[in-house]
Amino acid sequence: MKSLVFAFFTCFAVTAAFAYDPLKVPEAALAAPLDFTVQDASRERALPIRVYLPAASKAAPVVLFSHGLGGSRENNPYLGKHWSARGYAVIFVQHPGSDESVWKGQGPARIPMAMKQAASVQNFILRAADIPAVLDQLTRWNAEEAHALCGRLDLTRVGMSGHSFGAVTTQAVSGQTMPIGRSLTDPRIKAAVMMSPSVPAAGNAERAFGSVTLPWLLMTGTRDVARIGSMTLGGELDSRLGVYPALPPGDKYELVLHDAEHGAFGERSLPGEGRQQNPNHHRVILALSTAFWDAFLKGDAEAKTWLNDKGARSVLEKDDRWQRK
Prior knowledge:
This protein is an alpha/beta fold. It has one domain: Alpha/Beta hydrolase fold, catalytic domain (Rossmann fold). Helices cover 34% and strands 22% of the residues. The protein has a 9-stranded mixed β-sheet with strand order 1-2-4-3-5-6-7-10-11, sandwiched between helices. The protein has a two-stranded antiparallel ribbon with strand order 8-9. α5 links the parallel β5 and β6 (189-195). The chain is globular. The two termini are 35 Å apart. Mean pLDDT is 90; it is low at 1-15.
């Protein structure tokens, strides 16, 4: 524990030495998040969303987040709070069919199989279509004078992010080539952050990722495997690490957190994970993702220099890995 505390304050001291600091947030208090439901009439599908707005009332760049299997719009509030404090409108999308409804009300013995079945191609396709549906509705609400989101969203600057199944969703809508004969990419997305990404179960990684033109930031850990009990839900470590080598050069980044498990990207450890979470992991996730958004959604040259030079490494512990191309 002493070593973690020492590392935390050492990283803080080094980060503070840079003029640009992605962990610094204004003192202005943020309002409570807002909950809405997007009605996608064409698919008869209702999509709950949670919105974290920045303190300033002017239009803000938008970051969408897609939860992992069995999650909800309530997941990962640490991301919503920090990114919104840094000037982003953060939209957490809930995906029916692969959300918390999969496990709620199920007996413990039935949950692993229910989760496995929910990680289906059908739900993947539904998730990928949820993102443009949400962006379409946000565009309408942004122009609707009586709506709470009116004028608050800069939809010319949209980032996409997600964890696990949400990372796979993010890959699909931000440049991955799909083997189904059509593109799922939404051209409104300008940059993407994937937490616990995966190569496709079928096909070639180079074909899937070799044509990605958008800036991508990949995040994983050396123990990042999704399990429930004895069942692996996909995404073995070699799959997590197989995405980055297949990407072409040009604003592509990869973070591998030492000893980070699958739950490191959420608020708590997941069932079956035995290690105490390292408090510096969230700090690294927030710092690197914020600098990435600042660089590629706000066009902040200092943020990009921080990412590409010694700034990013200043928040890492010695066994964490960081690379770019």
